[in-house]
Specification:
alpha+beta; 321 residues; 10 helices; 2 domains; Fructose-1,6-Bisphosphatase, Chain A, domain 1; 5-stranded mixed beta sheet; D-Maltodextrin-Binding Protein, domain 2
Length: 321
């Protein structure tokens, strides 16, 4: 996808990532020094500030579009010091921002997911953000249940001799990546060509509570996987899968949360990137992901993502356990 051929909405989303990274990096630098691990306030500040920044941009550039996000302004109305901090972070990019504007922008993310709408996860990977490790800002555009575009901003991710990269993809036009510090240097993304299951590099969450870790361990044994897994927070895992640095990512239902269904913002951006890079994503029943059911993927159980070459065979190994 040559720079001059990038659809307007995709270029808009790419341009937003630099501002989002400015906010998240500023919050990390200011607030995560000798951080109490139980204190989530830094990621709360970043979540709110990024959502406000993205929402105002959508309102300005695409006033007929709506946005679906995780945050609401209610907490800020009850905590003036938090509102001050969030507003200060937004002011780093939008100097004239006021308290009431910030709250209104955040609440724009409470729109209903129908028709054409943007989906945002401001800081995907809470623990990774607090550890100064991997997190992502993830943005997608969905129209009538179809993910049109996806962008993943990964400010801390090392890839191809760069640190701080973003991936972007548009329906039927491929996936590309670029470093934050050289945004004219775009490179196509393609999944790996590894077809030997024993050589699969498996992407796993740092947090065992997010998945069924014992079943993943059992899968690796039965499949004869000999390569150590890669543990990582957030949709940055989808970046590595699309970029040929891994072959498999599983998000299995935790035994104590078998009724859990994924939020669309946790999947839609990475989903489009992986598909356009040649990979395959289904649920653990082998069904396509259905983004037409509201804020959650209510018709899908778990997530199963591969480089696509032997997706069905690999999934059968899991299903037989």
């Amino acid at each position: 996808m040559h720079k001059t051929m990038i659809p307007d909405e995709l270029q808009f989303a790419i341009n937003l990532m630099a501002g989002c990274a400015t906010i998240t990096r500023n919050v990390q630098q200011k607030h995560i020094i000798q951080q109490n691990k139980a204190d989530r306030s830094p990621v709360t500040i970043a979540d709110y500030a990024v959502q406000a920044y993205v929402a105002q941009a959508i309102l300005q550039s695409y006033p007929d579009d709506v946005m679906v996000g995780e945050e609401t302004g209610n907490l800020l109305l009850q905590d003036e010091s938090l509102l001050d901090e969030v507003t200060d972070q937004v002011k780093a990019i939008l100097p004239d921002s006021k308290h009431d504007q910030v709250i209104a922008w955040i609440d724009h993310g409470q729109s209903q997911p129908v028709g054409r709408y943007w989906v945002l996860d401001p800081v995907d990977g809470t623990k990774g953000f607090l550890r100064r490790m991997q997190y992502a800002t993830a943005l997608a555009l969905i129209e009538d249940g179809e993910v049109i575009l996806g962008v993943l901003g990964c400010p801390n991710l090392p890839y191809a001799d760069q640190v701080g990269v973003m991936a972007y993809a548009y329906h039927d036009q491929g996936a590309w990546w670029l470093p934050y510090n050289q945004q004219t240097q775009t490179t196509p993304m393609r999944v790996s060509e590894i077809k030997d299951l024993s050589q699969f590099r498996i992407l796993r969450s740092f947090e065992d509570s997010h998945t069924d870790s014992s079943r993943i361990d059992s899968f690796a044994r039965h499949a004869g996987v000999t390569v150590d897994p890669v543990r990582m927070d957030s949709q940055a895992k989808y970046f590595l899968l699309a970029g040929g640095q891994a072959e498999l990512s599983m998000r299995l239902l935790a035994p104590e949360r078998t009724d859990y269904r994924e939020y669309i913002w946790d999947q839609a951006p990475g989903y489009r990137v992986v598909l356009e890079a040649g990979g395959t994503i289904t649920d653990t029943d082998g069904k396509s992901l259905d983004f037409s059911t509201g804020r959650r993927l209510t018709n899908n159980r778990g997530i199963f993502s591969t480089n696509g070459w032997i997706h069905e065979e690999v999934l059968k190994v899991l299903q037989q356990l």
